[in-house]
Structure formats: C-alpha cells, structure tokens
Write a structure and sequence with these properties.
By secondary structure, the protein is of the alpha/beta class. The chain has 2 domains: about 120 residues, Rossmann fold, CATH 3.40.50.620; about 120 residues, Glutamyl-tRNA Synthetase, domain 3. It is about 35% helix and about 15% strand. It is built from 10 helices and 10 strands. Strands 1-2-3 form a 3-stranded parallel beta sheet, with helices on one face. Strand 1, helix 1 and strand 2 form a beta-alpha-beta unit. Helix 3 packs across helix 7. The longest helix has 17 residues. The radius of gyration is 20 Å and the shape is globular. The two termini are about 20 Å apart.
Length: about 290
C-alpha cells in the first residue's frame, strides 16, 4: 500500500480480536498486515481486546491471544485496551445518541423478529431485517415492560439517524479506503441496509458497532485494517462517526482465508489454531509464508 506516508508518525493501526476462541491463520493475516503497515509508515500498532461479551470472552483466552501475537513477533503499544473495562465510554456514546432522540427500546425476541420480518429481507449479517416492532411504540407498553424488569435492547432509528446526519452536512455518506495496491478510493456508505440496528444489547451496555467506533476515536486510530467480512459494517460505522462527531479513519478490508471448500476460517468452526500449529512445530516464519501463499 504505497499511499501510506512513511514521514507521517500520526498513523495508528490496531488489531482487535474478540477472544471467544483461539486465534487462527485468518487472525494472523490481519495482525501481520496491521503490523507491516505500522512499520512501513513509522506509525503505531495497538492491540485491543474486544470482549464486551464477558461470558464468551474469558480473560485466559485474551491472554492466550496476546501470547500468540508475541510469538508471531508483533510488538505493540501498552497498555492493551480491554473493552470490558470501558463500558462507561460506550454508555456515554449511547447517551449522546439518546439525547438526539435516535434510540428506542426494543423488547422483541429473535423468534418474534423472525416471525414478523418480511420474507427475503435480511441485514448484511444475514439476520432477518428488523420489521420495526417497537418503533414508535406508545409509552404505556414500554413502561409496563420496564416495570416488570424485562430486558431490552436499544435500537437506532435509522430514518431519524440519516436525517440527523444530513442535517450535519452529510447528505451523501461515504468512506475512504485503500485497495491492495495502496490506491485511495471513495465509496458510498449505505447504512440503511442495516435497518434499525441494535446499538445497546440486552445483555451488555453496548454493541460491537457502538464500541468499535468509540474505541477507534479514543485510541486515535487513523487506519482500520480488517477483513472483507466487515466491509458492510463500515457503512454503519461511518454513520455513527458523523452522528457522534468522531474522526473518519482510512479503511482497508483485506482478503479472507478460506478452507478447501471456500468457507472462511472461523473460531466457531474449530479451525486449526495458531497454538496448535506451534505445537506441531510451525515457526512464525512458516505462518508468515502460509498467509502470503493462501
């Protein structure tokens, strides 16, 4: 990526795994790309542990991930940011959106949403597109559910959010990205395809989308390098950055590593971990050659 300016020491990159399983070759590819670009630009490499789901992301898996990265030869700035230690930051971001009247409570279950959703309409993650069950609900049923202590999520009113972004001068949302050759391009962002997305989950005071844009701003991240599976999320992240007055980083979405069938490598599928490869005698150099070849 030749457009990374080696004289600009303000560049900051981050590798941000979610420790709900062991790191595999796909993680190695992303971590090594961030490391290489940080070195090339004379910039900073940060590591963030995205563990807002504290039940599925125990600390020992985070420690194991850091060990894998150190074994690969990566060096990063300390301290490592653990999202589970910064819920107050995400509550503050949600409060700003709530003060703009852009959030509303939703008590619907996944089953209720699937039953009410229009056939064939899905968000970019493949979930049924939210059909607005609690959008514009009156105060009485909301107060009744709250009085019973029922859990609820906070959803973004997408129509209001887009209008608010337009009022801030962003009639056409875009994001800036670099391709594999380092060329800069401007791409239109289409956050509306996410519908009224959850920004505060029922089980934790944030969501991936809200916490990641908050952290990128707080950590001064200038370049977000991550897999193509998160390309669509960038549309929503740009909207949140505009609404929360956060800076826009440059994005690069790299290729994904797949198995012989074309399936993306995943922790949930128990793909061979870096720790297992290390136990089999692989070296960091072997890992680097492998991710370059695949």
């Amino acid at each position: 990526m030749d457009d990374v300016d080696a004289t600009d020491d303000r560049h900051a990159f981050r590798f941000a795994p979610s420790p709900n399983g062991a790191l595999h070759l796909g993680h190695a590819l992303s971590a090594l790309q961030n490391d290489a670009l940080a070195r090339k630009s004379g910039g900073r490499l940060l590591v963030r542990i995205e563990d807002i789901d504290t039940m599925r992301c125990p600390r020992h898996l985070a420690i194991a991930a850091l060990g894998d990265l150190a074994w690969l030869g990566l060096a990063w700035e300390e301290p490592v940011r653990y999202q589970s230690e910064h819920f107050a930051d995400y509550r503050a971001a949600a409060a700003k959106l709530d003060a703009m009247d852009l959030l509303y409570p939703c008590f619907a279950s996944r089953t209720e949403i699937a039953a009410a959703a229009r056939p064939g309409e899905f968000d970019p993650d493949g979930a049924p597109l939210y059909p607005g069950i609690w959008l514009n609900a009156s105060a009485a049923p909301i107060e009744e559910r709250l009085a019973r202590g029922e859990p609820f999520a906070l959803r973004l009113d997408m129509a209001k959010a887009l209008a608010a972004a337009q009022a801030r001068g962003s009639a056409r949302l875009t994001f800036t990205s670099m391709n594999e050759q380092g060329h800069i391009q401007i791409t239109e962002a289409l956050p509306q395809r996410w519908g009224d997305v959850v920004l505060v989950r029922k089980d934790t005071p944030t969501s991936y989308h809200l916490s990641v844009v908050t952290d990128d701003a707080l950590q001064g991240i200038t370049h977000v390098v991550r897999g193509l599976d998160l390309l669509a999320a960038t549309d929503l992240h740009r909207l949140l950055q505009v609404l929360l007055d956060l800076p826009e980083p440059v994005y690069h979405h790299h290729r994904l590593l797949t198995d012989e069938s074309g399936r993306k490598l995943a922790k949930s599928a128990a793909d061979t971990s870096l720790a297992e490869l290390r136990a089999q005698g692989w070296t960091p150099a072997d890992i680097r050659r492998k991710v370059e070849m695949v």
